[in-house]
Design goal:
Number of strands of chain A: 16
Number of helices of chain A: 5
Distance between the termini of chain A: 32 Å
Largest interface: A-B, 78 and 78 residues
Helix content of chain A: 10-25%
Mean pLDDT of chain A: 84
Strand order of the largest sheet of chain A: 2-3-13-11-12-5-4-14
Oligomer: homodimer
Shape of chain A: globular
Order of helices and strands of chain A: HHEEEHEEEEEEEEEEHEEHE
Structural class of chain A: alpha+beta
Radius of gyration of chain A: 20 Å
Strand content of chain A: 15-25%
């Protein structure tokens, strides 16, 4: 049994161990050395908590989704809040699972009436107006929440990775990965499709409502960027989706009702007192900058050839649970 | 139920359907329109067939790995052939599964004696000497199998994607994704870590033997490139690894013997007559070039914004089964 193969990004529990060694920094040791004030609370109103029916062994299956912050996908996120408050997803199911692609849930029959005020969103809102330039220091300008708003303010954003075309970049902001393109005429930014990203399933010619959602369970399908609304990311329990049996029907839909995984409830975390609480490592913090750098430049003894770079989806912004179950 | 979300790359069965429409080309329609002579047989001697114990419902679980062609990872691949011929893996197990990372198998206790001639390989063989230039047409020069061999011959390679640094590229060759870097002093190439790639687990300071293997079941961990030997890729049955319960022990190792997934047998396909036969879409074919282009530039009605590019791990070279079970 050879365990030297580096463990998952999310295995933060090994951080203390890593610190005891005299190795160069590792992602885990950077997290372990981070300061308390570098962690920001996730607003409970930004957490969707989905409880699936227990598994065959009777074990609980809880999936926690952090909603993407404004100005991204605001219409859909507003819908999601209404759907959760109406307990709309209760009794629906995970009905489609495709390997290296997505697990999808909602009302498979599309017969359930949507709550008042939950409507289709426009398909030109997958991206938002964004900075028209990146500062010399590498910091992006702030987002404009609305077209026509005042000119962007300068703010400290996180690491910006310039693409092969200089007008393109990838970055982290408020705990989320995103990408953008700049031009004198139309500069935009959008949340990226990475492992664990949650998006809005839709039909051709429709922007979707958010009632049908999917989580990415494979290699980042970046070609979906700007073609589907990304509304959040799974920050706990992705394994309850990624380990589900793959559907054998058309497009990976489960062929029988019995295969569907019942959704017991979906709630905003703010709705119940014992809900889990989470913190994310501030995208503007020194520790996050160091974390990204080390992910791209491993010098600990296992690594003979540091990569010297890393793609935006290969750094999952660190999240930790601070309470609840 | 909204199914417009594009299905998996591997859902080739929908190809005929796609062709019936008047849509612009899709990956599926390109495959459907490919010519018979564009598909090449995978040599049965290059297929490792791993049968896991049946699942809880009694269903067979077969995982088929195509070995990487020379000159890549030759020492390890030679070991794998010997291990399979010795039936060495029979009775071992899948003992470690980490979400968005790897499923790993072999002799968890490391007590089983290796067959004669199966030894540690040097950790400087993760990459091989490679073309020192890329032709104007974008085709790479052929690989040199050995340092000091005759100067590279010109051959038709597949699409070459130049990286941000002009000395770097990614490409496809003989059905495998790879990457390379060029310099006047030392030009190298290596197989990439993508979803489904199979690599050699190893300890620090060791190149490993190949007796402990892992398959990638998440976003491409490209930082492992040139740090671990890639020996193949899963071309069928990856779901039997990707859906396994995640391990809860250190580094994702199963905590109890009962959690381990028994390996019934691992055989070279050439060893048994009714083994599955496969073909891959020739990396040098027009259809594969079109396939990659369409993956990067979707113009069918679901896509509002073709990406204009795609990363090497977001194109799984197409494979199809032609016989066997």
């Amino acid at each position: 049994m050879r365990l030297a193969l580096a463990a998952s990004l999310l295995a933060l529990s090994t951080a203390a161990f890593a610190q005891e060694t005299e190795e160069p920094p590792t992602p885990a040791s950077v997290i372990a050395a981070s300061k308390t004030e570098e962690w920001k609370a996730v607003d409970p109103a930004d957490l969707l908590v989905m409880d699936l029916a227990p598994d065959a062994a009777g074990e609980k299956r809880r999936v926690v989704v952090q909603l993407v912050p404004p100005p991204f996908s605001e219409g859909w996120v507003a819908n999601l809040r209404k759907l959760a408050q109406a307990h709309w997803w209760d009794g629906t199911s995970v009905y489609r699972v495709v390997d290296n692609w997505v697990a999808q849930w909602g009302d498979v029959d599309e017969t359930k009436q949507l709550p008042d005020g939950v409507g289709e969103q426009p398909d030109d809102a997958y991206s938002v107006p964004a900075p028209t330039q990146v500062t010399a220091s590498g910091a992006p300008l702030c987002f404009q929440a609305e077209p026509g708003a005042q000119s962007p303010q300068v703010c400290k954003g996180m690491l910006v990775f310039r693409g092969p075309r200089s007008a393109e970049y990838a970055a982290y902001w408020q705990g989320f990965p995103f990408a953008g393109s700049m031009s004198p005429h139309r500069s935009i930014a959008w949340p990226t499709h990475c492992y664990g990203s949650v998006g809005v399933a839709r039909s051709v010619g429709s922007g979707g409502t958010g009632s049908e959602l999917y989580a990415v369970i494979g290699h980042a399908p970046r070609q979906l960027d700007r073609n589907i609304a990304v509304v959040g990311r799974v920050i706990e329990g992705i394994e309850h989706l990624s380990t589900l049996p793959r559907g054998t029907g058309e497009a990976g839909v489960y062929e029988t009702v019995g295969e569907r995984v019942p959704i017991v409830s979906v709630r905003l975390s703010s709705e119940f007192p014992d809900a889990p609480r989470f913190e994310y490592l501030d995208s503007e913090s020194e520790s996050f900058a160091a974390y990204v750098h080390i992910r791209a430049n491993r010098h600990d003894s296992f690594y003979l050839h540091p990569a010297g770079g890393i793609d935006v989806c290969n750094v999952q912004p660190p999240v930790r649970r601070v309470s609840g179950e």
